[in-house]
Amino acid sequence: MFVNCLSIKGTKKTPIVRLCMSEGLIEISGDSTSINPHEFFQPIMEWLEEYSKAPKPQTNVKINFKIFNTGTARCLAGVFLILQNIYKINQGVTINWLYDIEDEGMLETGYNFETIAKIPFEMIGIQHVDQENNVFANQETQCFCKPRT
User: Fold this and answer.
1) Four-CA torsion 49, 96, 3, 116, nearest 10 degrees
2) What is the distance between the terminal CA atoms of the chain, rounded to a whole angstrom?
3) Distance between CA 119 and CA 87 in Å, rounded?
4) Do 139 and 126 touch, CB atoms closer than 8 A?
5) Which helix (H) or strand (E) segment is 135 a member of?
6) Share of residues in the chain with pLDDT > 90 (%)
7) 130 — pLDDT class (breaks 50, 70, 90)
8) pLDDT in tens, 28-79
9) Is residue 149 scored above 90 in pLDDT?
10) CA 139 to chain centroid
């Protein structure tokens, strides 16, 4: 059964997830270092598959990881392939890839996913202000956007 909104609380090893059909919103943020990310991402992938059958005219995606493992990278590639199919239908997909301004590796990872997805990403560098709780500075006041090259 397809639910309009799916929320998953984050843990130290899994990200916070908020998916909302009526808002056309997809948000994933936090750390993803679980040994079995496929199990964690399974309901997300199922939700995205259903959403892709009747997407909103505009889908807004916000990805905000501090760290993730290789298994998560494979899951994210699957997420971006579904979003690519939505983009092909109506091009109403905006992907914001947020990364710590001191983490060039995460920025580069965003560019790699942009290449895989064939969807333009907005790379948004933000200042990480709370290492212990993985909290970033206010996006409106601490935004350091990097232009695409």
Assistant:
1) 10
2) 42
3) 7
4) yes
5) strand 135-136
6) 81
7) low
8) 999 999 999 999 999 999 999 999 999 999 999 999 999 999 999 999 999 9
9) no
10) 15
Q: How many CB atoms lie within 10 A of CB 2?
A: 12
Query: Residue 102 and residue 7: Cα distance in Å, rounded?
Result: 29
Q: Are strands 128-130 and 25-32 parallel, antiparallel or unpaired?
A: unpaired
Query: Which phi and psi (to 5°) does residue 131 adopt?
Result: -60, -40
Residue whose entry in the numeric block shows the structure tokens 């965003």: 110
Identify the CA nearest to 117 among candidates 71, 91, 78, 89. Answer: 78
Per-residue tokens: 101: 């301004």
Per the CB < 8 A criterion, the answer to whether 82 and 48 are in contact is: yes
Domains of the chain plus CATH, in order, are 13-126 (3.30.750)
